[in-house]
Amino acid sequence: MRVGFRQGRFADASRPNWDGDGPRPIDWFAWYPAADDAEETALPLAPWPQGWFNAGPAAFNAPLAEGADACPLVVYSHGTGCNGLQFEWLARELAARGFVAVAVNHHGNSNAEPYRAEGFLCSWERPRDVSLLIDHIVAHPDFEGRINLDRISAVGYSLGGVTATALLGGIMLRSPFEPGANLGRGPREFPDLIDHLPRLMEKSQIFRDSWARMSASYRDPRIKAALLLAPGRSVQGFSDESVTAISIPTRIMVGGGDALLPSARWLYERLSGSTFDVVAHEAGHYVFLPKSTELGRSADPACCVDPPSVDRGAIHRTVVAAALQLFGA
Questions:
Q1: CA within 13 Å, CB half, 150
Q2: What per-residue confidence (pLDDT) applies to 84?
Q3: What are the 10-residue block averages of pLDDT along the chain, 329 residues in total?
Q4: Counting Cβ atoms within 10 Å, is residue 133 exposed (0-12), middle (13-18) or buried (19+)?
Q5: Cα–Cα distance between 39 and 145 in angstroms, integer?
Q6: Spans of all domains in the chain
Q7: pLDDT attached to residue 69
Q8: What distance in Å separates the CA atoms of residue 143 and residue 129, rounded to the nearest whole number?
Q9: Alpha-carbon distance values, 45 to 77, 88, 95, 141, 305 (Å)
Q10: pLDDT at position 178, please?
Q11: Structure pTM?
C-alpha cells in the first residue's frame, strides 16, 4: 500500500505559549494509506537535526486511499528534546498496513524550535497536546469520517512513554526536577534545567499555572492500547495507585543497555496486563530513533552509533511487528 504524508499546525486557545503572547502551538505530522497511483518521493523535510537520520519516501499531500473501512489511528509522543518526525520509521510501516499514524511536536520541548526550560519541566502539558491532536485529526477534512474511533492507540518514546502513561490514567505526584528528587540537574539536551526552576517559579505566572496542573488527570478513554519505548525516569513520579489501576493493554520495550531500564521495569511491575521486552542486551536508549546517516554518526555518536552487536534496523522491525500485534493489524 502506498504511504501518504501531510503536516499541519493548530493552536490550543485554552493554554498560552510559554512567551504568553499567543496560544500554545501544536505542530503535527501524519502518515496514512494513500491511493495506489500516489507517487512516493523524498519528503521536503526530514527528522531534525537535519541530515542526521534516514527517512523513507511518501506521497506528499496525497489523498487518503479509498476504502470502505475506517482506519485505526495511532498517535505518537516524542522523547524530550526530540520531534515527531523521528516517528517516521514506524509510522510509514503502520500506514502501509492501513493505519493513520500521527505525531506531534511538543511546544518548548522539541528541537524543531528553541528549547524552553518550561517545556522540559512541565511534561504534564504534553498529554493534552495528544488528546487535542486526536480531536483535530478526527475532524480534519482529509480524515473526517475515515478514523475508526474504537481503534485509537498511542506510542510514546522516552518522555513520550511518560506522556502515554498519563493518557492511560497515570497521575503525576512529583516532578523529577523538584528539590530532593536526586535525578540530576537536567537531561543531556538541557543540562542546567533545574537551575531555571526558582526563577520561573518567581517570575512566570504561566509557569506557575502549569506547575499547579501537575497532578491533574490527563486520561483519554479513547486510547485502547499503548506501546511504550524506553519510558523515561519521570514514570516514577506517578502515584502507584493510579498506575496499578490501569488495565489497558500496554507493551513496554527497552534496550538492555539503557540506563532507563530500571524505570521501565518499575512501570511494568505496576501495569496490570502489560508485557515487557528487552529488545537487545547491549541496545541503548537511542536505538528507537531512526537509522542514522554518516553525518549523524559523526555529529552525535551517543544517539546515532550503536554497539557492534546491535542492529538498529532489526530492532525497528521487531518493534513494527509488536505494534501490529498490539494494535490489532
A1: 3
A2: 98
A3: 97 98 98 96 89 95 89 98 97 98 98 97 98 98 96 98 98 85 80 95 98 98 98 96 98 97 97 95 98 97 97 98 93
A4: buried
A5: 24
A6: 3-327
A7: 81
A8: 18
A9: 19, 11, 18, 23, 23
A10: 76
A11: 0.97
Instruction: Evaluate the omega torsion of the peptide bond into residue 49 and state whether it is cis, within 30 degrees of 0.
Output: yes
Beta bridge partners of 153: 74, 225
Please identify, in words, the CATH class of the domain defined by 3-327. alpha beta
Structure confidence at residue 181 (pLDDT): 60
CA distances to 6, 288, 317 from 84, in Å: 13, 13, 19
Q: Report the alpha-carbon distance of residue 21 to residue 263 in Å, rounded.
A: 37
Q: From 26, 43, 32, select the one nearest 84 (Cα to Cα).
A: 26
Q: Give DSSP secondary structure letters for 104-144.
A: EEPTTSSTTS---HHHHH-GGGHHHHHHHHHHHHHHSTTTT
Residue 178 DSSP label? S
Find out whether 78 and 50 touch, Cβ atoms under 8 Å: no
State the Cα angle at 263 between 257 and 268, rounded to 5°: 105
Strand order in the sheet with 71-77: 59-60, 3-16, 23-33, 100-105, 71-77, 147-157, 223-229, 250-254, 274-278
Q: How far apart are CA 194 and CA 179, in angstroms?
A: 8
How many residues make up the chain in this entry? 329
Ranges of beta strands (E only) in 158-299 are 223-229, 250-254, 274-278
* Structure confidence at residue 68 (pLDDT): 63
